[in-house]
Design brief:
The protein is an all-beta fold and 124 residues long. Helix content is 0%, strand content 59%. Strands 9-8-7-10-11 form a five-stranded antiparallel beta sheet, with no helix packed on it. The chain has a four-stranded antiparallel beta sheet with strand order 2-3-4-5, with no helix packed on it.
């Protein structure tokens, strides 16, 4: 997994973070004031980008945490066959096979935006 390190204090809602070795999108981020014997803590509620499961994390704000590198790409649907579709990347012109999301209706020659991290892809 392509990732980089970042301090917890630099995270914000809508950004990505790695929790339990899974790339997650941050839904809520809150901090608690420093106590008598410790530093300020951050509580992060997130949802898996590719699996949709909810996860939470509590860390000191000065701790380092992994942030995944997720690319946002443009593609064009070449063909649809049942639950699979062929998508051509508009930058590299390579063709990839993706699963059709259940909640979306897609058709050939339609332009889409998708997230890609290593071998995982998801339509936005």
């Amino acid at each position: 997994m392509a990732k980089k390190q970042q301090e917890v204090r630099d995270l914000q809602e809508g950004s990505y973070v790695v929790i339990d070795d899974v790339a997650c999108n941050i839904n809520s981020y809150s901090t608690a004031k420093p106590g008598k014997h410790g530093s300020a803590k951050a509580r992060i509620e997130a949802e898996g980008v590719f699996d949709g499961k909810k996860r939470s994390l509590s860390q000191p704000v000065d701790a380092k945490i992994w942030v995944p590198i997720i690319e946002r790409k443009q593609g064009q649907i070449v063909s649809v066959d049942g639950n699979d579709m062929q998508v051509m990347d508009l930058e590299t012109y390579e063709t990839i096979t993706m699963r059709v999301p259940e909640d979306q209706d897609v058709s050939p020659d339609e332009n889409i935006e998708y997230l890609e991290m290593e071998d995982e892809r998801k339509i936005v």
